[in-house]
Amino acid sequence: MDTASLSTPHAVRPEGSKPLVCVRHVSKQFGNGTLAVRDVNLSLGAGEFVSLLGPSGCGKSTLLRMIAGLGAPSSGTIEWPTTTHDAAGEPQRDLGFVFQDPTLMPWASALANVMMPLTLKGVRKAEARERAAAMLALVGLKGFENSYPRELSGGMKMRVSIARGLVLRPKILLMDEPFAALDEITRHRLNDDLLELWWKEKFTAVFVTHSVFESVYLSRRIVVMAARPGRVMADLDVDAPYPRDELFRTSPEYAHLCRVVSGKLKEAIGS
Amino acid sequence: MSVPSIDAPAAAHDGTDSEARPVFATEPRILGLPASAWPRILAPIAIGVVTLGLWELAVRWNEIPPYILPGPLLIGQTLVADWGTLSGSLWITLRITFMALAAAVIVGVTLAVLFTQSKWLEMSLLPYAVILQVTPIVAIAPLIIIWAGDINLALLICAWIVAFFPILSNTILGLNSADHNLVNLFQLYGATRWQTMRHLKLPAALPYFLAGLKISGGLALIGAVVAEFVAGTGGSASGLAYRILEAGYQLKIPRVFAALLMISLSGIAIFLVTSWISHLLLRRWHESALKREN
Ligand SMILES: Nc1ncnc2c1ncn2[C@@H]1O[C@H](COP(=O)(O)OP(=O)(O)OP(=O)(O)O)[C@@H](O)[C@H]1O
Ligand SMILES: [Mg+2]
Question: What does CATH list as the number for A1-84+224-271?
Answer without folding.
Answer: 3.40.50
